[in-house]
Every structure is written in C-alpha cells, then in structure tokens.
Write a structure and sequence with these properties.
- The chain is mostly helical.
- It has one domain.
- Helix content is 67%, strand content 0%.
- It contains 3 helices and no strands.
- The longest helix has 14 residues.
- It is globular, with a radius of gyration of 11 Å.
C-alpha cells in the first residue's frame, strides 16, 4: 500500500521549523513557495524540521 503524503502538513512542519530557526514569518511564504517546485529542497527542509523535533526522517 502506498503512503499518503499530506503536503500541507509537511509545509506546516517546515514553517514551524523556520520559526524556530529565527526566519521571519514574512519570509516563510517565499521559502515555502519555492519548496512546492523543488522536491529536493522540500525533502531537505522537511528532514531538518523533523530532526529538530527528534522525529525519524525515514
């Protein structure tokens, strides 16, 4: 069975990570917009967000 990916939830995780990293809220939309078209960057940011929360990245 294939996994269901909730991109909106992932983007919320990344946004929370950006806040923790000190990125101004006004810049989040710029980064998140770029991540919707760059899957490699999306995965890197998502992995960083999950690692910062102590979650597995697998």
């Amino acid at each position: 069975m294939a996994a269901v990916i909730n991109v909106s939830a992932e983007l919320r995780e990344i946004s929370a990570y950006l806040s923790k990293a000190g990125v101004p809220e006004t810049d989040h939309h710029i980064i998140l917009n770029k991540l919707t078209t760059d899957t490699d960057a999306h995965l890197r940011y998502l992995n960083q967000a999950r690692q910062s929360n102590g979650q597995s990245t697998h």
